[in-house]
Structure formats: structure tokens, C-alpha cells
Design a protein that fits this description.
The complex is a heterodimer. Chain A has eight helices and no strands. Chain A is mainly alpha-helical. The longest helix of chain A is centred in the N-terminal third of the chain and has 46 residues, at 62-107. The two termini of chain A are 35 Å apart. Chain B is elongated and about 120 Å long. Chain B starts with a helix and ends with a helix. Chain B is of the alpha+beta class. Classes of the chains: A mainly alpha, B alpha+beta.
């Protein structure tokens, strides 16, 4: 239930921040478009006036493709090699935009403010960069260790196999396990970011450690949320593949339709990424709130009350008392509380 | 009756290992039967050792007096790291590497002429190819008495062989055994006039990394004693199987008119049997692959049998065994032996990835080219590998579709010939080596691309030039003329010249030598290009002309009712050094087309047209005859660029890049 609540709250937050989602999508589109434009230019310059293109209208043609790559592969490779630089740049860009994204979700403002968004991007960039380095190192070291361990396990368990069924099955299991463990690291990195923004923290090592503890402490909820979003992305990919197979790109209209479908697919993935942060933020706030509620103090017995004098029963003759005054019963002294309050550490952001 | 019983008793006494009469497959021999073997072998499955007793009957069919014999001991290629095979290959074949400690060898324990001299002490290892004294794959024995013309010599040879851990065709993997090239095997004596021999000579090469085999035809009677729970498959027909008392069994096989014998044994095989006309098909397949792949093996081999029967000639043998190597023994896969082939498959390979079919059809093709037409695989590998590859692509494309035969899976498709052609055209240096070369002479690489891919590509080009029916007649003639013999490249070209001339006259000149000189013996590449199209509006003379006493520009004389006049120039170029006759198709705006024919000799050719329609596009080699042209994309040009595919792939590229960027930034 916690996971579902976080998911639905996250959906609500994400949808409310649709302008931000659009902005993030625009960044993705713009950077990819730079390369795509270069690719188009290379195609036109090299094969633009060849009739071989007829073979590519309806379908992929292996011969046209391979002859093209054998002749002009160098030019395409030069373009492709720029992808690595762009990937690195995009990684840094995402690190920058992450702070603004989470802060916007946290603030939950009714109207998206570009200025506020980029201010937050700047405010958290170097902290997120440190998190990127910390978790990047963890990911690489863990990946290398897992590869070595799993490789050894695979070799030992399959060396006498006479059929590929067991090695193949084991390889899939180990690969999925590898991916799951790496996904946990990415999840921890996400929560470190969320915690940093939520608490405006400055110690990234501390946040990293806390996020690791947080994920393990709330394993089912955190992993459940992540997997549910991943499943939705996977479904979207499958839907895209089905549409691509059905629509094809054999006519100009089909190319336009597929372009729209593709961009919708990309947009959905951007939305899902924002949803991931939103859901994680919801989960984090919920569990942190539960953790910050005051703990009921233990009861400390008070001093033994003096014995209460038995009430004086009124005689037949009226007693001489203050007129109009009733005698009050003796009240027990109040219990003492020794509550422990958590020290507030959050500061309001500037 | 009593005499018959006595005769039977004599037979049983003299032939203790065979409890039934020898089966005769061909009442009339199909081949010269020069080298016939009778071998008894016992497999020690624990130690991976063979103990064999061999009787070789070798007939001297030449006119020479043979004073020495030469033999192959192929298994010694795996004896140590210094053998020619291991030094050339680096301990691997087709990507499969030898397991540490998996050495193999073969020793001749004794060798003597029946009722004659002892030869073991006279054995001498020789190195006819490379002077590598560590290589022990060929030995010679001099004879005190020469073998006279037409004389038969019988040798009794005892040998011991240790099988290697399989990585290069033969060997073991746990309890799986694929036993090939496993016995002392006599070389081929080529008398003067045979192939390239100007005088009688032994043709007995060392075992090289790239080489395969060469031997004479004969009759084989082989019995193998193996553990009783093993399933056995072998060349030839199983005559008898006897269970022995010591947990072993002995299988008796007989084969006629073949030049090699291999066998396999494993306790895991599942047996599937089927029939195609007169051919009994026996598939030995791994248990996990039975459900998904058995019918794929059977259907593809039937397609190959049918195709070869129709287009080349009859498969004469009554049997064919297909072996599916187990996991860890794929080095034994994709190999051919007479009437036995090894395939290759995996559990759960989708139907659209035609790995099983490609390998099966290719290896079956070798039954014809190498098996029935016994070319020399050492010296002219293209005659078996290249011709087989040509037929593999032809059969695959006919059976499974030109653009889908190799793969048709999840939207991706590719034809088998497409892949084969790209194996040659995609070389970074397609001039790396000639196709005609000794298999061990590809020092800079290129053996596979030249012998398989380039050969299949130029044979396909030849087929497209002369027509499929003429090509079929060429191959049928070659097959019928040279089956059970040892042809060379010259013999194949002679058949081509003969049939092309008979069917097409002088259409391609007096012979086709010019074709083979370039593609087989040469290293040049073929690349024709439609270089340019130019359409110029014509207004007649430039400058000024007199008209009614005044000087005007010719444009002022333009009569719109006549329409524009274009002067169009088409330039076709020969970028490569291979010269082939080629057509040029020119298309005009009104749909009219003109087909020109160019002899393809000069570096360029220009075509000029004047008319009211401009040229919109032109293609050189419009019918894709020149499969060997290394670049099809420059064969055409259009004045009206086709933009839809450009946008299609730009949009796809954009999408891929967006996804790559997203996945790269998971943090």
C-alpha cells in the first residue's frame, strides 16, 4: 500500500509538473537532433542521389546497407564517435537537471518556474556531481567484482555440462541478478539525491551512507516502486515495438506517424524518470516523517500522595462552615513527562 | 549341403569379426578403388585412445614403378605446439581454441607388406611444404620392391591414436567422440598428366591450419568397438552390431567408392530416421535439441538432396548420417565426410535464425564437391569450398527466400547470398590474395573470404551472365565428367568454355578464360559507377545570330510549341580493374528507356542524347548481373532524389540517439 500510495502521489506530482517534463524532453530531443542532423547530412552527401535508396523505402536492405558502410563507414564512424562525447555531456547535464527536478517536485509549486528550476539546478549540481562520482565508483567496483564472482560461479557450475540448457539458464539468472544488484546501486543514488534535496544536506558521503541504509531498511517499498515503474517502461517499449511492426515506415505518412509515436515513447520515458524521483520523494518523506515522530516517553512514577483524610460525614445539626462554600476534593498531582524531542536540522532554503 | 556347411564354417573361422556376408552396395564399382581399407579399432573411452589394426590395399594405377609410399598422420598435427598446424593456427580453428592439455597424436606401432618386408623401421617423417622438422603429419616409406603398374600392394599397419580435446574437427569432449582423420592414410600418387603433374609424383601435403584433405577412392570396412551404451554413427552402412561380454559392443560398417571414413560415438545421442527417395537419412541429435531442431535438420537436408538431384546429378549412396555435436564440442561441427556430415545447432534457436539449415545444406553440398568430385582441398580449396558455398546460397535463397534465407527474425532479415557476398566485398583489402592459391599460402589472411565468399560471388556472377540453365549444364557436365576423379581448376574452366561456347556461341568471346583470369587467378576488384547525369537545355548556338536584319540571342528563337530540347550526357566509369561487359539503362522523363551495352574495357564511357525529354535516372548493371561489383550504391544516379528513405533513417537515428542518451544517464 505504501508503494502504491507513493506511486500515485508521484504520478500526481509529475503530472502537475508537466512543464518541467516537457523541458527535460526538449533537452533530450535537442541534443539527439544535433547528431541526427549530422547523420542526415552525411546520408545526403554520400548516397542522396543513388537509386539504391529505392530498396530502403519499404524495408531494410542488407546489401545496400553493407555496401554503404564498407564505402562510407568511416564517415559514419566519425559521427558515431561523437556520440560518446555527447553521452558524457548528457550525463553531466542530467546531473545538473536532477537537482532542479527533485527540488521542483519537493516544492510542489502550482506554477512551474523556470528561474526557480535552474536556480535549484545550480544549487545542487556540485553535490550531485559528488554523488555521481561516489556511486559511479561503487557501480564500477561492484560490477567488476560481480563479474568476476559470477564468472567463476558460472565456470564451476557449467564446466561439465553436456547440454547448453543449464549454462544458458544459469547465464540468464546471473545476468538478471547482476542487473538487479546494479539497479539497487542506482536506486541508492536516487535516494541520496532525494535526501540531499529534502534535507538540503551538504555531506554527500553521509547522504550516500544514509541512502544505502534507507533502501535496505525499506527494501520492499523502494524496490517495489522502482520495479513497478520499470515494468511500465517495459510495457511501453513492447507497445512501441508492436506499433512499429504494424505501422512500418514505408510511406511518408507512416514516417510522420512513426516519428510521433517515437517521440511519445521518448516522452513517456522522460515522464517515467520524473515519476521515479517523485515517487521516491514521496516514499522518503513518508518514512522520514514516521522516523521523526516523537517517541512516547516512559512513565516515571510521581511521589507517593499523602493519604486523603476520610470525608467528614455531616451530623443532624448543621455544622458551622463557610457559607455557600463546598469543600473540594483533593486532586492527585499531575504526572511528569520526560519527552525527548528530535532536534530540528532542516533549514529553510534560501 | 555338407560342403555348404563346410564352406560356411571356413568363412566363419577365417572371418571371426563378421557374422554376416559382406554387403555389396554397388555391383559395378563407381570409382577406381585405388585405396581400400579394412580397419578394426577399439576405443578406450576413459583414456580417449584408439587401438587400431589396419589393412590397406593400394593399387598402382599409373604407368610408373612406385618406389616409395607416402602417408598422412593427420592426428600428429595436435601433438605439440610446434606442429605446422599449431604454429599456423595459433591453437585455434574457426574461433575454437584447444583445451589446455588436450593434445592428440598417432603412432604407427608396426607396418609391413603382407607376406613381405617390414616397413616400420624405414619410416621417415618428411616436410614437403615448409621444412618444419617438428611436424609429423607426413611420412614416407621406401620399398625394397617397387609397386609395378597395376600391381596391388597390401600393407598391415598397427597403430595407436590419442584423440585430442576437440577444437578442430576431430576429438572428444567428455563422452562425446567425433573421430575423423584418425588412421594412417595413404597419399595420392598423381601420374603425369593428372592435374598439374608433368611427371609422376606423390601429392601428400602436411596438415596445415587452413587445409583440408585429399585421398583416393576405395572400399572401407571398419569395425569399431566402443562401450555398449554408446550410440554410434559412421560413414557407410551398418552391417552388423555385436554386443560383447565386457560391456562393449562392436559395430561393423561398410562403404564403397569413398575416400575417407569417419565415425562418432556418444551415449547421449537420440536417433531420428527418415527417408528421401533411395537415401536413408539418420540423424544423431542431442536430447535437448530433439524437439526444436530435428525436423530442421531433416527438412533442410531433403531440400539439398532434391536440389542437387535436379540441378547437378544423382547422389549415389544409399545413406546419409547427420551428426549434431554436443555442447562444448562445436569444434566438431560444420564438417563433411563421405556420407556423414556434422551440423551445428542450439537449444531454442528461433526458426527465423537459420543456423541449422545453413550448416546442413553447406555440409551436404560437400558430398558432391569434395566427396563425389574429389578435388584437392590442399591446393585448390575453391573447387570444393567455393562451389559448395555457391550451392549453399542458391539452395538457401530458393528454399527460404532471397532476402530472408539466412535470418528472418524480429523484423530483421537477410539472405544467405547477401551475407556471403558481403564476406568478400566487405574486406578492408579485397585484393588480399587470389582465390587460386595453396591453402597454406594465405599468409596475410583471406583464406575464408577468398575460397568461400569470393568464389560463390563470382560463380553467381557467372550464372547471371550466362543464365541459370547454362550454368546448370556446366555443373552437370563437370559433375558427370569428374565424379570419382581428381579435377583441377583448369578442368573446371575447360568445362565452362565448352558448354558456354556450345550454348551461347561467341557471345562472351572465344572462351571464358578472361573471366577466370580476373576473378580466380587475379586479385583486382570490380566496381562500375554511374558517375554523372547532365541535362542541358539547348537553345542552339551560343552568342548572337542574324535574324531579319538584326542580331538576336538564340533563345529568342525558342518556340514553346516545340518544347524544350535537352542535350543529356551520361558518364559511366570503371573504378575497379576488373573488366566485365555491362549494360547501362537510361530512363527519360516521359518513361522511355534506352538500354546500352558497354564492353566495360575502357575507364569510362559517355552516352549522349538529344531530345525533348531529359534523363531522370540511369543505372549501370540494371539487372545486378555483376554480383562481384563491390559497391552497388554507386551503380545508379537520379536527378530526382528519393528523399523518403533519408527521412526514414534520420527519424530512426534520432530515436536511437534519444534512447542511447537516456540509457547513458541512469543516474
Amino acid at each position: 500500500m505504501t508503494t502504491l500510495k507513493a506511486l500515485f502521489s508521484g504520478v500526481h506530482s509529475t503530472n502537475r509538473s508537466y512543464r518541467m517534463v516537457a523541458l527535460l524532453y526538449a533537452f533530450d530531443l535537442l541534443i539527439a537532433a544535433i547528431l541526427a542532423y549530422g547523420f542526415r547530412s552525411v546520408l545526403i552527401a554520400t548516397i542522396g542521389d543513388s537509386m539504391s535508396l529505392e530498396h530502403l523505402i519499404k524495408d531494410f536492405d542488407y546489401t545496400v546497407y553493407t555496401d554503404y558502410m564498407f564505402k562510407y563507414g568511416g564517415r559514419v564512424s566519425a559521427l558515431i564517435s561523437q556520440i560518446y562525447w555527447l553521452m558524457f555531456f548528457y550525463l553531466l547535464l542530467n546531473t545538473l537537471l536532477g537537482g532542479g527536478t527533485i527540488a521542483t517536485l519537493k516544492d510542489g509549486a502550482e506554477r512551474f518556474s523556470m528561474r526557480s528550476f535552474f536556480e535549484n539546478c545550480g544549487a545542487y549540481f556540485f553535490r550531485f556531481l559528488r554523488l555521481l562520482l561516489i556511486f559511479g565508483v561503487i557501480l564500477i567496483l561492484l560490477g567488476a567484482t560481480l563479474s568476476a564472482v559470477f564468472g567463476g560461479v558460472y565456470t564451476v557450475l557449467t564446466q561439465d555440462s553436456v547440454s547448453e540448457v543449464w549454462p544458458f539458464s544459469l547465464a540468464i539468472i546471473l545476468f538478471l541478478l547482476f542487473l538487479f544488484i546494479e539497479m539497487l546501486v542506482v536506486l541508492m543514488a536516487d535516494y541520496a539525491k532525494v535526501a540531499t534535496v529534502a534535507n538540503d544536506a551538504t555531506s554527500m558521503l553521509k547522504m550516500s551512507w544514509q541512502s544505502i541504509k534507507f533502501v535496505f531498511r525499506h527494501f520492499v517499498s523502494t524496490v517495489g516502486l522502482q520495479l513497478s515503474i520499470l515494468v511500465s517502461v517495459l510495457v511501453a517499449v513492447i507497445v512501441y515495438l508492436i506499433l512499429e511492426d504494424q505501422i512500418g515506415m514505408a510511406t511518408p505518412l507512416a514516417v510522420i506517424v512513426m516519428f510521433l509515436v517515437q517521440q511519445a515513447s521518448v516522452g513517456f520515458k522522460v515522464w517515467a524518470r520524473v515519476l521515479t524521483f517523485a515517487g521516491e520523494l514521496e516514499l522518503f518523506k513518508k518514512f522520514e516523517k514516521e522516523a521523526s515522530l516523537p517517541v512516547p516517553a516512559p512513565v516515571v512514577p510521581g511521589p507517593t500522595p499523602e493519604p486523603v483524610a476520610p470525608p467528614v460525614m455531616p451530623s443532624a445539626a448543621p455544622a458551622a462552615t463557610e457559607s455557600g462554600k463546598k469543600k473540594r476534593k483533593t486532586r492527585r498531582p499531575p504526572l511528569r513527562r520526560t519527552a525527548v524531542r528530535r532536534k530540528r536540522t532542516s533549514k529553510k532554503s534560501k | 549341403m555338407k560342403s555348404s556347411l563346410c564352406a560356411l564354417a571356413v568363412i566363419l573361422i577365417l572371418c571371426p569379426s563378421r557374422t554376416s556376408a559382406l554387403q555389396i552396395i554397388f555391383p559395378q564399382p563407381l570409382s577406381p578403388r585405388i585405396a581400400s581399407y579394412t580397419i578394426s579399432v577399439t576405443l578406450d573411452a576413459e583414456r580417449k585412445v584408439l587401438q587400431g589394426k589396419e589393412t590397406l590395399r593400394w593399387r598402382n594405377t599409373s604407368k610408373d614403378r612406385i618406389r616409395e609410399l607416402r602417408f598422412h598422420l593427420y592426428l600428429n598435427a595436435f601433438k605439440n605446439s610446434k606442429s605446422t598446424f599449431m604454429t599456423e593456427s595459433g591453437g585455434q580453428l574457426r574461433g575454437d581454441r584447444m583445451e589446455a592439455g588436450g593434445w592428440g597424436w598417432i603412432d604407427v606401432a608396426s607396418m609391413k607388406v603382407r607376406d613381405g618386408e617390414e616397413l616400420k623401421s624405414k619410416m621417415e617423417f618428411i616436410h614437403p611444404d615448409d621444412d618444419n622438422t617438428m611436424d609429423q603429419t607426413v611420412f614416407r616409406v621406401p620399398l625394397s620392391k617397387p609397386v609395378l603398374p597395376n600391381q596391388l600392394i597390401v600393407l598391415d599397419i598397427d597403430f595407436t591414436a590419442k584423440l585430442p580435446a576437440v577444437f578442430a574437427r576431430t576429438g572428444y569432449n567428455q563422452d562425446f567422440f567425433m573421430v575423423g582423420q584418425w588412421f594412417p592414410k595413404i597419399g595420392v600418387y598423381e601420374p603425369a598428366g593428372m592435374r598439374y603433374a608433368t611427371q609422376g609424383q606423390w601429392n601428400c601435403h602436411q596438415f596445415h591450419a587452413n587445409s583440408e584433405f585429399y585421398a583416393d577412392y576405395g572400399v572401407y570396412d571398419v569395425d569399431m568397438t566402443v562401450p555398449a551404451n554408446y550410440v554410434v554413427g559412421a560413414t557407410g552402412i551398418l552391417e552388423n552390431e555385436r554386443v560383447n561380454g565386457d560391456s562393449t559392443k562392436t559395430c561393423f560398417y561398410h562403404a564403397e567408392d569413398i575416400h575417407d571414413f569417419s565415425w562418432t560415438a556418444s551415449p547421449l545421442y537420440k536417433v531420428v530416421e527418415d527417408q528421401w527417395k533411395h537415401v536413408k537419412i539418420r540423424l544423431l541429435i542431442q536430447p535437448d535439441r530433439l524437439k526444436g531442431n530435428a525436423q530442421r535438420y531433416i527438412q533442410s537436408v531433403k531440400a539439398a538432396l532434391a536440389f542437387f538431384d535436379e540441378h547437378v546429378g544423382k547422389y549415389p549412396y544409399p545413406n546419409l548420417t547427420i551428426v549434431d555435436p554436443q555442447w562444448g564440442a562445436f569444434g566438431a561441427g560444420g564438417m563433411e565426410y563421405p556420407t556423414l556430415i556434422t551440423g551445428g545447432s542450439f537449444w531454442a534457436v528461433p526458426d527465423g535464425i537459420r543456423l541449422v539449415e545453413v550448416v546442413t545444406i553447406h555440409e551436404f553440398g560437400h558430398q558432391y564437391f569434395y566427396g563425389l568430385v574429389g578435388s584437392n582441398e590442399f591446393e585448390e580449396a575453391w573447387l570444393d569450398e567455393g562451389i559448395t558455398q555457391y550451392y549453399e546460397t542458391r539452395i538457401m535463397d530458393v528454399t527460404y527466400g532471397v532476402k530472408t534465407s539466412a535470418a528472418d527474425f524480429m523484423g530483421f532479415h537477410v539472405g544467405d547470398f547477401e551475407i556471403t557476398r558481403s564476406g568478400y566485398t566487405g574486406l578492408s583489402n579485397p585484393r588480399i590474395a587470389p582465390t587460386y592459391a595453396n591453402s597454406w599460402d594465405y599468409k596475410a589472411g583471406g583464406y575464408g573470404s577468398m575460397t568461400y565468399d569470393k568464389t560463390a560471388t563470382f560463380l553467381t556472377t557467372l550464372q547471371r551472365m550466362i543464365g541459370a540453365d547454362v550454368m546448370d549444364e556446366v555443373m552437370k557436365t563437370y559433375f558427370e565428367r569428374w565424379k570419382f576423379k581428381h579435377p583441377c581448376s583448369r578442368d573446371f574452366i575447360a568445362v565452362v568454355n565448352e558448354v558456354v561456347h556450345k550454348r551461347l556461341g561467341d557471345k562472351f568471346g572465344k572462351d571464358m578464360n578472361w573471366f577466370f583470369d580476373q576473378v580466380l587467378y587475379g586479385t583486382d576488384v570490380c566496381d562500375y559507377e554511374l558517375s554523372s547525369i547532365r541535362n542541358e537545355l539547348v537553345f542552339g548556338t551560343r552568342g548572337l545570330v542574324d535574324s531579319a536584319g538584326t542580331k538576336i540571342h538564340p533563345r529568342e528563337q525558342f518556340n514553346p510549341e516545340e518544347g524544350s530540347t535537352y542535350h543529356s550526357r551520361i558518364l559511366v566509369s570503371r573504378l575497379g580493374d576488373v573488366r566485365m561487359p555491362v549494360d547501362v539503362l537510361v530512363h527519360f522523363a516521359d518513361g522511355k528507356e534506352i538500354r546500352e551495352h558497354w564492353d566495360g574495357q575502357a575507364r569510362w564511357k559517355e552516352y549522349n542524347y538529344t531530345g525533348h525529354q531529359r534523363v531522370t535516372w540511369a543505372k549501370v548493371d540494371p539487372d545486378d548481373v555483376l554480383a562481384i561489383d563491390i559497391n552497388v550504391n554507386n551503380n545508379s544516379k537520379t536527378e530526382d532524389p528519393i528523399s523518403q528513405p533519408i527521412w526514414k533513417y534520420t527519424v530512426k537515428f534520432l530515436f536511437w540517439m534519444e534512447n542511447v542518451l537516456q540509457y547513458s544517464s541512469i543516474f
